[in-house]
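Case study 2.
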Amino acid sequence: MSNAPLILLSHSMLAPVEFALTAAGYRVARGWELEDGQKAEIRAIVHAGEFVLTPDFLKSLPQLGLIANISAGYDGVNVPWCRENGIEVTHSQGGNADDVADQAMGLLIGAWRDIVKGDRVVREGRWNNADRMGPRPGLSGRKVGIMGLGHIGKAVARRCEAFDMKVSWWGPNPKPDIAWPRAETLLDLATDCDILVVACRADVSNRGAVSEAVIKAVGPRGMIVNVSRGSVIDEEALIVALKAGELGRAALDVFAQEPTPPERWADVPNTVLTPHTAGGTVDSIPRMVAQALENVRLFLAGEPVITPAT
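Prediction:
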């Protein structure tokens, strides 16, 4: 065991993965209590992609050759810099797409139909039959625009179709084999939809892409759902628009800062918020961990990895 490769777990959130790594025959270094003497031996990092790995830190690991992200996203990793410096980067592909899409639909329905608000009304003794005469619109026939049509976006689209919603999408790259219509721009997509679902992979190119203009285009009767990353939305503009009634609703699983400060949302109306839990279920997590560990195994064996970041 003393000669086994040393693998770094980058964040305490990943502590449960240590057992799988040791069972596979690796030694494990814990990033939250990393000793300087361990840095020279680290061959690979098992990582949660939303957390930032700085070039300065990576330079301190002279034998590092792989960053295996358990997550689908890897916005905390500078992939071009890593590749230029001989470090491969991998991620989870499709391992949790259905679970994230399920959460997106839960957020969408819960916010659009005031389900979470209704739960509070009942529990707090504020049930007023007169409220039933001010009903919300239904979902059938509503127009859903999806930003990003990868594994997650496609899974959301299929679910929306099952609810008889009309699906369109936007992403920077056309997909000729996709039947759902693609908008010319993100702003066009926002203007033409009732509900904008943000499901893209976050990177430097789309930071703040859901801008003030896009948010206002969705409008006072519309809603934004985000299961991508908080960085994709101008969160301050979103909050201002919700308070001003320029955006109807928002349902968010991800935030600009995580954990997001609760006081930031205390007086923001018409929101449903969850603590970045969309991608983690007892079904998806083992798949994503297994994929990351397979990439580690292949890298150490000198073989091509199966899910390189693009």
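The radius of gyration is 21 Å.
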